[in-house]
Amino acid sequence: MAGLMRMTRIREVVIGTILATTLFLFVFLAGCSKDKRSVAGLCDCDSTAPLVGALSPVCGTTGVVLNQKIRVVFDKPMESSTITTGTFSLAGPGGTAVTGTVTYVSSSYIATFTPGSNLAPSTTYTYTVKGGTGGVRRVAGNALVSDLVCGFTTGAAPDLTAGNGRSVILAGGLRQRTSSGRSAVQRPLERPLP
């Protein structure tokens, strides 16, 4: 009889522990909506808005290279589905949209806008990261407080007539005419032309 009572008591403690744990998890997760759960399934209930930690190019920069990619580094993990060409864009003179692609690297919190072609020389561009409703959001669901708007100006076109021969930029590299008039192809450029 004593063994049966002890077995019943152990069963009650185990059931009580399971119920208490379930209740704790329910209360803990109830504070977050479904879209605020991280990939691991745990709740990120931090209510702070994301911050921009770094920009490239920095606002107001001049002499920016013509093949510049626009990069924005956030301080916290962002919801990748909210970082698109609709929320991260580049515009030229008169607000003309620049076509391009947007990527987000979740391990480094970096969003990148890559223009579809080189930017025009000596031209002012503005990039925008949309905040607020319909803007970029953290994994926790918090949006950037307001739009980030930043302008920069590209440098002059490279002087292709400098030196002993004339140089022409090609998609695969640099073709240069030598002083003898022959054409030589150098390997593809790994850095922007000066």
Given the helix and strand composition, which structural class is it? Answer: alpha+beta
| Gross morphology | rod-shaped
In helices, the fraction of residues equals 10-25%
Q: Which assembly state applies to the chains in this document?
A: single chain
Q: Please list the strands of the largest sheet in the order they lie side by side.
A: 1-2-5-4
User: What is the CATH architecture annotation of the largest domain?
Assistant: Sandwich
Radius of gyration: 28 Å
Major sheet: size, sense and barrel closure?
4 strands, antiparallel
Q: What's the total helix number?
A: 1
Number of DSSP E strands = 10
Strand content: 25-35%
Low-confidence stretches: 23-31, 33-41, 163-194
Q: Please give the domain count.
A: 3
Describe the structure.
The protein has 194 residues and is an alpha+beta fold. It has one helix at residues 2-30, and strands at residues 52-56, 70-74, 88-91, 100-105, 110-115, 124-129, 148-153, 167-170, 173-177, 183-186. The chain folds into three domains: 2-30; 52-153, Sandwich (Immunoglobulin-like), CATH 2.60.40; 158-194, no CATH class. The chain has one helix and ten strands. Strand 4 (100-105) and strand 5 form a beta hairpin. The protein starts with a helix and ends in an 8-residue tail after the last strand.
Sum up the structure in keywords:
alpha+beta; Immunoglobulin-like; 10 strands
Concise structural overview:
This protein is of the alpha+beta class and 194 residues long.
Protein topology:
Elements: H1 2-30, E1 52-56, E2 70-74, E3 88-91, E4 100-105, E5 110-115, E6 124-129, E7 148-153, E8 167-170, E9 173-177, E10 183-186
Antiparallel strand pairs: 1-2, 2-5, 3-6, 4-5, 6-7, 8-9, 9-10
